[in-house]
């Protein structure tokens, strides 16, 4: 029943919820958010607010209420303004929102509002004592607005990864807000009574604050705990997803390949070894990526491991690597690595039936020692024809040309060991 | 770590006897601790034929609590211990079995058998008191051999482990003179180097013109030093690698 199936999907639209708009806003984003929510042009909503403002300041009150209680979000960004916010794929693969335009209009709006407020206050004809309270009240309002805007910015920074402004600015803004509120409140107190009452009033205020903290404290603590726990769970889930993705990408694919190649033991072994190495690198490397295959290794340990891995992949013979110490590669060591690689290839080719090839590298002060050992049948160097250059040129000759030494220890039936010794270049 | 000729092919009773030294007369009780049933079954099949190998598997456990209970109940001579276990890992088992290890009359000895050869796992269980460390790629013959070695009180090192230890002590060369007690002797270092190069104990003995027993005592000495002394240098080494 395709029709029946299609209906619930149609209903799966996300719940429409009122948000203040973070983008293209002039003050708190209330008007734009409302406009987006109601599907009206923004200018209409703004005009209505201004209209209401003239009606005894009702608009301002309404606006302030919206500002306080409606969360900031992406909601209500009108379609024609969408170009200002674009999604962009970050290097880590996550999509994030990027704001394109600095909020210049906001400053204009703020100034305009200030001017209107001044005119409004100036034109108001209130009684003497009431008028005296007006300025402190305005100060308090400004301080609160400042701090609330700050909270908005913090939230916006969290979901948009923008607005990572200097911390000092954040602190300065909060401090200014607090100061404004403080001055305003003190002003009210000072106006109410004489200055001598100030300390008593402050004490009372402090007592009230402590009381509120005692009452609300447990809830706040529990809320932050819930929040951090939720965050932890989310991080865990993300990590699990990453592991699952990696296992899927590499391990499952390898297992599929192994199933397909079940008949050829060599291929299965090769796949399993390559997968093991990959998984190990992923699990135990500090960064956990182990993906930058393209770049050349620049330390000895890395070079030995890389060479061993390549030979292992190519010849399907397991190579066990033990590296003691590490140092940067220089010209001589590069030559030594080439010789070692040749030795590994030989060991894998001719000695591979006896088990794993063992590679040991050690940095001992100024000398670097590499041993490549197999447990194959062994051979007699003197019996090798003169035209075969593998051992003589690629290993022994190369080492000697670069000022090192190569020793071959081979017992017929007892395996072969190639020992390579090289001095590091003096300048380190 | 044993000869290649023995490592390949099926378990040969005669070779096993030669390696382990008269298994018909000697039996060793072993407990398997691993959270994968398949792996326990596999090991059991490889080494569990008592009349042939001399190894008698007297118990199995899948997590830390079970392991401690089974080990306490059966008092085996050797425990084959997986490093990664539910309930705290092999290190936790070692910690809770410490009194059994210290028992003078019939000590329980631990041989770590793990798929991981990461430095933190290896050093962790060795410092916890395990007498050896082998990886799960080991052959049946070698494993039997290792079990007997551990039962006799000797240490069993994989080449990789020898490499870690050398690495740990290599960085101390330039350090100001510490007590000689805390250092590896030249001979011990030589032995370790040969182990790291993949030589079997027998081959090392031949090459250095010493007896296999001497090789084993050198290796045991290394293990002792690794566990008890050289505290600050190992700590420094571990901190440098962000292991602790």
From TrEMBL, chain A:
Keyword Transferase attached: yes
* Biological process (GO), any one: phosphorelay signal transduction system
Q: Does the record carry Membrane as a key word?
A: yes
Report which residue ranges the record marks as coiled coil: none
UniProt KW keywords: Kinase, Membrane, Transferase, Transmembrane, Transmembrane helix, Two-component regulatory system
Cite the Histidine kinase/HSP90-like ATPase domain residue spans from the record.
297-388
InterPro entries recorded: HATPase_C_sf (IPR036890), HATPase_dom (IPR003594), Phageshock_PspC_N (IPR007168), Sensor_HK_TwoCompSys (IPR050482)
Give the transmembrane region(s).
34-55, 61-86, 107-126, 132-149, 170-192, 198-221
The Phage shock protein PspC N-terminal domain is annotated at 16-71
Tell me where the signal peptide lies. Answer: none
Q: Which Pfam families does its entry note?
A: HATPase_c_2, PspC
Molecular function terms from GO: kinase activity
Q: Per its record, how is this protein called by name?
A: Signal transduction histidine kinase
UniProtKB/TrEMBL annotation, chain B:
In the record, which positions carry 4-aspartylphosphate?
A: 82
Q: Which InterPro entries match?
A: CheY-like_superfamily (IPR011006), NreC/VraR/RcsB-like_REC (IPR058245), Sig_transdc_resp-reg_C-effctor (IPR016032), Sig_transdc_resp-reg_receiver (IPR001789), Tscrpt_reg_LuxR_C (IPR000792), WalR-like (IPR039420)
Report the GO molecular function annotations. Answer: DNA binding
Which intervals hold domain HTH luxR-type?
Answer: 177-242
Q: Does the keyword Cytoplasm apply?
A: no
Q: Which Gene3D superfamilies match?
A: 3.40.50.2300
**Which SMART domains does this chain map to?**
HTH_LUXR, REC
Q: Which domain of life is it from?
A: Bacteria
Q: What is this protein called?
A: DNA-binding NarL/FixJ family response regulator
Q: Which organism is it from?
A: Streptomyces spectabilis
